[in-house]
Amino acid sequence: MNTPQLNFKPRGLFVGGRWVDPAEGRSFTTINPSNKDNLGDVPFATEADVDRTVAAAKDGFREWSRVTPKERARCLELLAKRIEEHADELALMDAVDSGNAIVGMRGDMTWTSDTLRYFAGLITEIKGDTSTQGPRHLNLTRRQPYGVVAKINPFNHPFRFCAEKAAAPLAAGNCVVIKGSEQAPLSSLRLGELCEGIFPAGVVNVITGDAVTGSALVRHRDVQRIGLVGSVATGRAIAREAAAGLKRVSLELGGKNPIIIFPDSDPKKAAAAAIKGMNMNRQGQSCSSTSRVLVHASLHEAVAEEIVKLAEALPIGAPWLRENDVGPIVSERQFDRIMDFIESAKSEGAKLLTGGGRPSNPDLQRGFFIAPTVFDNVTPSMRIGREEIFGPVMSIMPWGDYEDMLATANGLEYGLTAAIVTNDLAKAMETAERIEAGYVWINSTGRYLGSPYGGWKQSGLGEEECFDEMLSYTQTKNINMRW
Is the pLDDT of residue 300 over 90? Predict the structure, then answer.
């Protein structure tokens, strides 16, 4: 399995509109998880690099804060157009570097361009209020940007999250420091190149490194607004560090999401919804994946049989080939973690229906491939029934009593998404009202731009992909005037 040629080599850290070498000259290697090929060295940003990057963003804010809303919108539109022009190249880069299927990564580029245009169109809707406080008084509010915003991103949507998650803070008038994922860092630095000539120097900055780099960024005194997409553990760590400076944070964190299948459902359609909701084109490495299949006992065998058929039919292989739906796990560490969950499920008594290890294809033995895995008769007490795996592992959990099922669905610390499959819309709406999750699907899965996306409980703080996200990157100032 030969690695495709990527016509990109990191030029350094993108700081203040220029490419600079890391202060200590450190770097790390990124590999192709499909075959362990070396994809090149990537600059490692230390605390000194964070300091000069934030300083550059602070300098950039002086100019960006004077740019008109119309001009800010034009910049976002130009970036959207540039991404569209390079979409195939970016999708290939992410497929090779992260292991995600190229079809899904190509869709990421469309979503990213759409998001940039969405927020560009909303910029003039950043408005305040006025009220009278008596004769010769006028009270008004203004929304003003924070200044420097830190955005810290994971590996499962490498380019999309770096560009998409910068759209709202940029639209609101902030400058951004983007930290790409250390597991798939290439496309975040490519974003820096795409921004050249569009934004004033210092408006968009891109650095790469590890958790220590991210921590330095969170603690920096001149960063007052932070956005993270990551695990619950990372979110808690960032919230603790941000609390010391009373910084505003938004956190899109993990999930252990249920798909609830009612007895009136068509087993084939329900199984197809479960497979689709599992996001196998990212190997289940998605916070919104519906990994807990809560199926009514009357449909248990039929749905389980159909899920196995669909899982086994998914083509596995090199993620840069369009015919493949399932690629490798992003790293050896993540591969080992998922395999540990699979072994624990076996030891705790779950019934393995398919998968459970590397696929049989000899061409895939070098990479971090795990065949789509389905366990049956999973109970809420098992590790795979209660902890986020972030891998291609589905847990089928049959139910009979509605109240017991709801208790199981709501019985975890997570509350990101949930899916409901039924023809009884009254029962669907009742369940949607009672489910403890921030984003609920009924007879569908997928994300819709403009609809608020965010988690309940330990799955996050704040909403994204909507108008309120843009407003969250502003501060309200009240002005009371007398004449």
Answer: yes
Q: What's the CA angle centered on 472, arms 469 and 414, to 5 degrees?
A: 65
- Annotation says 252 is catalytic: yes
Of all residues in the chain, the percent with pLDDT exceeding 70 is 100
| Angstrom distance (rounded) from CA 418 to CA 361 | 34
Query: Residue 310: helix, strand or coil by DSSP?
Result: helix
- Does residue 134 register a pLDDT over 90? no
Q: Which of 182, 241, 252, 465 is catalytic?
A: 252
More confidently predicted of 3 and 445: 3
Task: Report the C-alpha gap between 342 and 390 in whole angstroms.
Answer: 12
Closest CA to 304 of 325, 274, 347: 274
Rounded average pLDDT over 459-464 = 96
Burial (CB < 10 A; 0-12, 13-18, 19+), residue 23, is middle
Q: How confident is the model at residue 281 (pLDDT cuts 50, 70, 90)?
A: confident
Residues 6+ apart with CB under 8 A from 386: 256, 380, 412
> Is 251 within 8 Å of 293 (Cβ atoms)?
no
Chain centroid to CA 331: 17
Closest CA relative to residue 162, chosen from 218, 97, 228: 228
- Among candidate residues 75, 195, 287, 466, the one labeled active-site is 287
Lateral strand order in the sheet of 13-15: 18-20, 13-15, 204-207, 175-179, 148-152, 225-229, 248-252, 460-461
For 373, list phi and psi in degrees, rounded to 5. Answer: -120, 135
Q: Please provide residue 342's backbone torsions phi and psi, each rounded to the nearest 5 degrees.
A: -65, -45
The pLDDT of residue 224 is 94
Distance, in Å, from the CA atom of 389 to the CA atom of 99, rounded to the nearest integer, reads 17
Collapsed DSSP state (helix, strand, coil) of residue 360: coil
Tell me the β-bridge partners of 40: 30
pLDDT at residue 447, rounded to an integer: 87
For range 381-388, the mean pLDDT: 97
| Closest to 393 in 3D by CA, of 329, 476, 444 | 329
Q: Give pTM, 2 decimals.
A: 0.96
The full set of domains in the chain, from first to last, is 13-253+459-482 (3.40.605.10), 258-449 (3.40.309.10)
> Is 125 in contact with 471 (CB distance < 8 Å)?
no
Would you call 220 exposed, middle or buried from its count of C-beta atoms within 10 A (0-12, 13-18, 19+)?
A: buried
Q: Note the residue count of the chain.
A: 483
For residues 313-341, average pLDDT: 97
Look up 75 and say whether it is catalytic: no
User: What pLDDT score was predicted for residue 289?
Assistant: 96
Can you tell me the distance from the alpha carbon of 162 to that of 207, in angstroms, rounded to the nearest whole number?
11
In whole angstroms, give the CA distance from residue 349 to residue 346.
5
